[in-house]
Amino acid sequence: MPEKEVIERAQKDAEEGKSPSTQAGEFVHEEIRHIREGKHGARSTKQAIAIGLSKARRAGVKLPASAETSRATQRRASRDLAKGQKRALPRPSPKRSRAVSRVLKSEGRAAGSKKALSKQATASARKRGAAARSAAARKAARTKGPRKRSQAAKKAARTRAGRRT
Q1: 73 and 139 share one domain
Q2: What's the 3-state SS for 115-141?
Q3: What is the distance between the alpha carbons of residues 32 and 52, in angstroms, rounded to a whole number?
Q4: How many CB atoms lie within 10 A of CB 42?
Q5: Would you say residue 163 lies in a domain?
Q6: Whose CA is closest to 84, among 48, 103, 58?
Q7: Closest to 41 in 3D by CA, of 115, 120, 109
Q8: Other CB atoms within 10 A of residue 84 CB
């Protein structure tokens, strides 16, 4: 069950009109934090992200699975979405909950490291085209604020200058 503050932050994001993926990000952050704190582990960073997304869907974030995912993952995502639309979530089976906790406790903690997260983000970005990455960078620069924007512009200029030589 997600922490109350995480649900509130996600609801605040929804009220501000932010995208479902941004709202779900709160739950993914929580999952990464749990791994770093040693509450449990994960076999991979992908698994940690998947757990966070599942929690988000069950909490009511309207985030369907992407078209590229497997049929099994899409089924699970739609099931989680359906559970999230209901008002009161049924309490999970204690036996199943204990079993999942026990398995996750025995997994490693490396999935929550900065290096693992960076590697995952890089691999995920590489799957997108150069145009999509560039558009994301432009959008990030627009939403950073004047101070950060000028720092980003200086960095980009240095990078371009380095490529010309």
Answers
A1: no
A2: HHHHHHHHHHHHHCCHHHHHHHHHHHH
A3: 8
A4: 23
A5: yes
A6: 58
A7: 109
A8: 18
Identify the pLDDT of residue 165: 52
Provide the number of structural domains found in the chain: 2
Full domain range(s) for residue 5: 1-86+111-127
CA-CA distance, 116 to 125, in Å (whole number)? 14
Q: Is residue 41 part of a domain?
A: yes
Q: What is the pLDDT of residues 101-132, one digit of tens each?
A: 899 999 999 999 999 999 999 998 888 888 99
Same domain, 121 and 149: no
pLDDT in tens, 35-89: 999 999 999 999 999 999 999 999 889 999 888 889 999 999 999 888 888 766 6
**53 assigned to some structural domain:** yes
Taking the model in full, what pTM does it have? 0.75
**Alpha helices (H) along 16-113:** 20-37, 45-58, 71-85, 94-105
pLDDT band at residue 149, thresholds of 50, 70 and 90? low
